[in-house]
Design brief:
Length: 321
């Protein structure tokens, strides 16, 4: 793999990390005046979004989750407009009215984040049916967490996708906890990927802390889908370094477990690989880091300076059947 590609993955993962750190800092401020409500951060899981989206073309689709900022950025979303949405400003992707869980951009193939557990799974399946109906070579990557796998819609959607041979890749981000419920208390199987057997589709496990392993596993599934050979389930074993949401103190997991996973920080692993294999100098990595910090600072500044929605916006973009 070319050094330029790896450096780009490093930049994207850093952008997600720094963006999420900025969001976290606003919530941790003594007086939180920029972002209201809650948020679900992607810190620690960056390799999954970047590795998966690296396999896609611009006109391919993704569906996202409540923990969706990383997916959006990896698919080519503008950090300024995402931040503006979180700030409730008119320049945001949903004009300041959707917030953290209700953003998307069809122009880059992002069909939206979703506040419902497993809510994006049927949307992705429907988009895959649309692709097959139209006869294009597009694919859909559907992101969801381990908690969504025990929702009925997961089984209904995978069953239908297999029956109709749809071009969709179901990417389960198994970060070991559905809110505070450990996977060991929710699944009688070792690997969630084993569930794929019931639908006669491939089920593979990926190291979700290794962006290249994610890219390899998802890439094979993408190629299979493009060739008309149907859906796949890819389980990416990963870990969120922060709580489920901003108020979660993670009392259900040990500090030893957290430290163990932090030693496999996906960003540090990729940087180490770049330097050890002489694909990038420490100075070049530092330059990328500075550029990313400047981009996030610019996003915050843009959001801060953007206008609020007006009263006239209240009834705009509303649709009723």
């Amino acid at each position: 793999m070319k050094a330029g590609e790896l450096l780009e993955y490093y930049r994207q993962m850093l952008l997600i990390r720094e963006f999420e750190r900025a969001v976290l800092s606003f919530f941790e401020a003594k007086e939180c005046t920029k972002i209201f409500g809650t948020t679900h951060l992607y810190i620690g899981q960056e390799a999954v979004a970047v590795g998966a989206c690296a396999c896609l073309d611009k006109d391919d689709y993704i569906t996202s989750t409540h923990r969706g900022h990383g997916h959006f950025l990896a698919k080519g979303g503008d950090p300024r407009r995402i931040m503006a949405e979180l700030f409730g400003r008119r320049t945001g992707y949903s004009k300041g009215r959707g917030g953290t869980q209700h953003m998307g951009d069809i122009r880059i193939g992002h069909l939206g984040s979703n506040g419902i557990t497993g809510g994006g799974i049927p949307i992705a399946t429907g988009a895959a049916f649309s692709i097959k109906y139209r006869g294009t070579t597009q694919v859909v990557v559907c992101f969801f967490g381990d908690g969504a796998v025990n929702e009925g819609v997961f089984h209904e959607s995978l069953n239908m996708a297999a029956l109709w041979n749809l071009p969709v890749i179901y990417v389960c981000e198994n970060n070991l906890y559905a809110m505070s419920t450990p996977v060991s208390a929710a699944f009688p199987v070792k690997d969630i990927a084993e569930r794929a057997r019931a639908y006669n589709m491939p089920g593979v496990v990926s190291d979700g802390m290794d962006v290249l392993d994610v890219k390899e596993k998802v890439g094979a599934a993408v190629q299979r889908a493009r060739e008309g050979r149907g859906p796949s389930l890819v389980e990416c074993k990963t870990y969120r370094f922060v709580g489920h949401s901003k108020s979660d103190r993670c009392l259900y997991r040990t500090r030893e477990e957290e430290a163990q996973w932090r030693r496999r920080d996906p960003i540090h692993l990729l940087k180490q690989r770049l330097i050890e294999h002489e694909l990038c100098t420490p100075e070049a990595c530092s330059a990328v880091e500075r550029h990313v910090k400047e981009a996030v600072e610019d996003a915050v500044r843009y959001a801060d300076e953007s206008p609020w929605p007006s009263a006239e916006d209240l009834y705009g973009d509303l649709f009723a059947g």
